[in-house]
Amino acid sequence: MIQEKCRVISNNLIAKDYFELVFTWTNSFKPNAGQFLTIKPEGKSLLRRPFAFSSYSNGTGGIIYKKIGAATTNFSELKQDDIIDILGPLGKSFEKPKNRALLIAGGIGLGPMIFTANELAKEGLKPILIIGARDKGFIPEIDVDPCVKVLYCTDDGSLGFKGNVTQYLESEGKKYLENSEILACGPHVMLKACHNLSLKYNLQCQVSLEEMMACGIGACYGCVVETTFEEKYKRVCKDGPVFNSREIIWT
Question: Which of 69, 146, 158, 169 sits at a 20 to 30 Å CA gap from 5?
Answer without folding.
Answer: 69
